[in-house]
Amino acid sequence: MPMDPLPDLASLSLSDIARLLAEKKLPPVDQWNPDHCGDSEMRIARDGTWYHQGSPIGREAMVRLFSTILRREDDGSHVLVTPVEKLDIAVEDAPFVAVELKSEGEGRDRALAFRLNTGDLVTAGPDHALTLRDTDDGPRPYLHVRGGLEALIGRSVYYEMMNLALEDGGEPVGLWSHGAFFPLDRAR
Questions:
Q1: How many CA atoms lie less than 13 Å away from 102 in the CB half-sphere?
Q2: Which residues contact residue 109 at a Cβ distance below 8 angstroms, ignoring those fewer than 6 apart?
Q3: How far apart are CA 102 and CA 123, in angstroms?
Q4: 133 in Cβ contact with 188 (< 8 Å)
Q5: What is the 3-state secondary structure (H, E, C) of the chain?
Q6: What distance in Å separates the CA atoms of residue 108 and residue 98, rounded to the nearest whole number?
Q7: Distances in Å between the alpha carbon of 2 and those of 60, 64, 107, 118?
Q8: Pairing of strands 70-72, 78-81
Q9: What is the pLDDT of residues 89-142, one digit of tens each?
Q10: Which residues make Cβ contacts (< 8 Å) with residue 10, sequence separation at least 6?
């Protein structure tokens, strides 16, 4: 089954993005409970690269397809799941990386949308929170994607967000999106 081409985020309005999100149907992985079948021999690296048996998966369509059957278990582990099998997959940090940002509006009226490395679009808001998490490398920004799955916000995207927040000039430093406020700097 061929994958749909990725839309150009820069050319989309937030209403276009909302329409695309409403039309997208993901497999109901939360409803599938097959027996555990083993290890997929796959890994998602910290930079979002997917590997199988130590080699990067070069076909973007394969990565996009696998990402639709990814699920986070209650114990925090990740699996690839279908109606008949469940396979472990190692995830070094977050399974997705936010690589592009679209912002419309200002202050409390702002809306933010992100493109992930898999081509998925996510709008930040009450159901898709932006958070900062303390790590050994310092605070790292994340975006809730779905079902406990998160995207690490790429460095250039985080800098773009910080510039928007600093331009807004609010205290604490942060951004609004779809009526929810997200602090972006713990130092203030």
A1: 19
A2: 176
A3: 9
A4: no
A5: CCCCCCCCHHHCCHHHHHHHHHHCCCCCHHHCCCCEEEEEEEEECCCCCEEECCEECCCHHHHHHHHHCEEECCCCCEEEECCCCEEEEEECCCCEEEEEEEEECCHHHCEEEEEECCCCEEECECCECEEEEEECCEEEEEEEEECCEEEEECHHHHHHHHHHHHHHCCCCCEEEECCEEEECCCCC
A6: 22
A7: 11, 11, 40, 15
A8: antiparallel
A9: 999 999 999 999 999 999 899 999 999 999 899 999 999 999 998 888 888 999
A10: 102
- Global pTM reads 0.84
Write out the two tokens for 81: 């799941």
Contact 69, 27 (CB under 8 A): yes
Q: Which two tokens stand for residue 145?
A: 């994607």
Return the number of other C-beta atoms located less than 10 Å from residue 116's C-beta.
23
Alpha-carbon span 91 to 111, nearest angstrom: 29
Residue with tokens 């604490």: 172
**Residue 57 structure tokens:** 């998966």
Of the listed ranges 8-17, 88-97, 143-152, the one predicted with least confidence: 8-17
Instruction: Compute the distance between CA of residue 85 and CA of residue 134 in angstroms, rounded to an integer.
Output: 34
